[in-house]
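[Protein data]
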Amino acid sequence: MRLKKLIQSGAVSLCALSFNAAQAATGGEPAAVIQVDVASCLAAAAADDMDKAATACAAVIDDEKTAKADLIKALIARAALHARHDQIDRAIADDSRVLSLDPALADIWNARGELWLKKGDKPKAVQDFGAALKIDPNHEKAKANHKAMAREIERIGAQMAVAGKPSFNCRSAARAVEKAICGNRELADLDREIFGSNARAIREARNPAEAKSLQREQDEFIARRNAGYGRAGYDLKKAMQERLQRINGVDGY
């Protein structure tokens, strides 16, 4: 829809150009400024023709005589084309230039936010979605994107809060193996995963007897871990990884 409107608008500019040329040919007053043909750029982009669009749009974008409105149309069209072909950095560059020319375009803030998201830059994505909503609080796509990202950031924050922390309180760690787990981020994460996976398995047990059996397995693992740590040949990390796999299954579930 956005490209269709741009093409229609570009066609009007093209007609104006033809009219001015005709005036000049018949001795009329020549146009003060010759307008650049943006219609070819918009049409090529809408047709998803990368080769034609590259030439036609560059002719508009790189021409110092291009009117601001036409420059914005060409940049938006080329950015959309780049995005469809996963040329994310180029699309971001074009959208960024558009926003430098007209920072009041909520659609472009949202579009660039989605591009940042594809690159994995979630903070920048959230900023752009927020900017779109400041301009248009009822922008549906920006609202949905911002809400989804807010939840994602909250989830990431929760994960970061427990990262490197085991399932038990390190302040009360007395055994050597517990101190070793507290002192190693990877082992601490493994311990927390084992605890969480075991709790999930018990919750999903088919009956109380199965739940009791699962807990007994966990208790036996901890007893073997406590007794084995420090002995020659005992690999704590390997033992913990095997326990996690045992709980979750080979496929991780």
